[in-house]
Each structure stands twice: as C-alpha cells, then as structure tokens.
Specification:
The chain is mainly alpha-helical and 125 residues long. The chain has 6 helices and no strands. The protein starts with 5 loop residues before the first helix and ends with a helix.
C-alpha cells in the first residue's frame, strides 16, 4: 500500500512548480524502480539459474535423442556379399524377382534381429 504523499510527489514531478530536493529524489527513485532494467536486475537469481538449467537439460535431451536415433546400420561382410550376388543374378536374369525378394527378406530378417539385440543391450545399460 502506498503512503499518502506519493501522489503529491508525483504531481510535483510532472508540474513546472519548483520542488524541494527530497521530492525530486523521490520522483527519480520512483522512475528507476519502475524501469525494466531495474526489475531485471532485482529479479531473483534463482529464476535465471532455473531458466539456464531448463535450457541445459533440454539441450542434453535433444543431444542424446539425436545420438540414439542416428545409429547407423552396418551390414556385415556375409550379408553384403549375399545381396550383391543376388542382385547380379537378378539383373542377369538367372533368378526371378520373387527369389530376389526372398533373399532380401532373409537378409533383412537377420539384420532386424541383430538390431533388436543391439537396441536391447543399449537400453539395458
């Protein structure tokens, strides 16, 4: 609650009347206290620490999610060789598209099993 003389000092500041030093100082302090810079400087340090902590945690979460999602799938030598041979045979017409699809399905099934095992081991640690 403001004291009763507040409006008097404010009126003195806004008018052309001569005022005493105390009234001028009060008006000056009121204008400083109402400024945005003063409010920012007087804000609690914990607000800024909390804001910084939230931003930092968000960055860390984004980093780990991107790292987890960007795991590359590497075919082993046997799977690569089998796929390349099947593709050559398919292009030369020695096997049908159905046989080629069966080879691809077998390779993808093995790859899916290996990836599932890798993901489970990552999630356990």
């Amino acid at each position: 609650m403001r004291w009763s003389g507040y409006e008097t000092f404010t009126n003195f500041c806004e008018s052309d009347h001569q005022v005493d030093v105390r009234a001028t100082q009060t008006c000056f302090m009121n204008s400083i206290n109402n400024s945005l810079l003063w409010k920012l400087l007087n804000a609690s340090v914990f607000q800024y620490v909390g804001l910084f902590a939230c931003i930092f945690v968000g960055v860390v979460i984004v980093y780990y999610v991107r790292q987890f999602l960007s795991t590359t799938v590497d075919l082993n030598q046997e799977d690569r060789k089998m796929l390349s041979q099947a593709e050559k045979l398919y292009r030369s017409g020695e096997i049908t598209s159905k046989e080629y699809q069966i080879v691809k399905a077998n390779v993808s099934k093995r790859l899916k099993q290996r990836l599932t095992a890798e993901l489970e081991s990552k999630l356990e640690t």
